[in-house]
Amino acid sequence: MIHTRGLTRVFKAKKVTVEAVRGIDLDVERGQLVAFLGPNGAGKSTTLRMLTTLLPATSGTAMVAGRDVRRDPGGVRGRIGYVGQKNSAGENFRVRDELVTQGRCYGLTARQAAGRADELLDLLDLTPLAARKPGTLSGGQRRRLDIALGLIHRPDLLFLDEPSTGLDPKSRADIWSHILRLRETYGTTLFLTTHYLEEADSMAERVVIIDNGRIIADGTAEQLKNDLAGDHITVTTTTAQEAATAARLAEAEPDGTTVRFRVPNAAAALPEYLRALEQAGVKAATAETTRPTLDDVFLTLTGRSLTDDDIPA
């Protein structure tokens, strides 16, 4: 559904050249749910705009939904849905009328647009709100309407740019239940950005991380965490001297009476480590293991947090 080679975007301002995206190679197959992650300024929004034909590429190629974004941008737009960060619906028409009008803009007949609108209203639990104006809806209800507008023409590929930003936890969970239901119902390929790492971790089949305009990691969340971050072991001792001994055994640095280090498999490593401590005359006061997060992956790759300054204003 998405195939790019060397996709690049260069901005020039005041005699300064900035490469926002530097040679993106990306392949997304039909039916995948891909989370596209990166801190602010990493290039994810620029990449998304190029893939949806909102911004021309400086160089490279991109085929989206079987159409070339440079040679046939209209063909791309007719085959994709796009839900941006801002609300799409107007304020002066009723919810159902907004959907019907959107369908007509995509070339559906009046009957087709009406039928499709009713189908999406039902699927997204918007039927009771069909006669209301968008301005009277809650944030979660408006996001569901935005998603319905992006799906009115039955696209095979849907781009979602921060679909749950600004919503309370309950509304976020509600939006995700509808996104997953849509995928199950229609088999839609989903390509989304999010700064909520737990969403990408638990929902996406595949995670692609971009930084400084380049893709630096690509795989399932579990693969990335296992291969690039590893499990964490934290042990505390009763004295700083014991902690120093415990740190030497783990090839780590002590932090007071606490020792933290990373291993590929904590469940297997911890018992062996505790035996080594006992043999060295060190008794652990506490010992715990934690699984890594996607932020740990990014920290390992770049030395900084993926969430630093990443919440949109």
Give the mean pLDDT. 90
The biggest sheet amounts to:
6 strands, mixed
CATH superfamily of the largest domain: P-loop containing nucleotide triphosphate hydrolases
Helix content percent band: 25-40%
Number of helices: 11
CATH topology of the largest domain: Rossmann fold
What string, H for helix and E for strand, traces the elements in order? EEEHEEHEHHHEHEHEEHEHEEHEH
What is this structure, in a nutshell?
The protein is built from 11 helices and 14 strands. The protein is of the alpha/beta class and 313 residues long.
Using brief descriptors, characterize the structure shown:
alpha/beta, 2 domains, 6-stranded mixed sheet, 11 helices, Rossmann fold, 39% helix, 14 strands, 4-stranded antiparallel sheet, Alpha-Beta Plaits, 313 residues
Description of the molecule:
The protein is of the alpha/beta class. The protein folds into two domains: 224 residues, P-loop containing nucleotide triphosphate hydrolases (Rossmann fold, 3-Layer(aba) Sandwich); 61 residues, Alpha-Beta Plaits (2-Layer Sandwich). Helices cover 39% and strands 27% of the residues. The chain contains eleven helices and 14 strands. It has a six-stranded mixed β-sheet with strand order 6-7-8-3-9-10, with helices on both faces. A four-stranded antiparallel β-sheet has the order 2-1-4-5, covered by helices on one side. The longest helix is centred in the middle third of the chain and has 18 residues. The two termini are 31 Å apart. The mean pLDDT is 90.
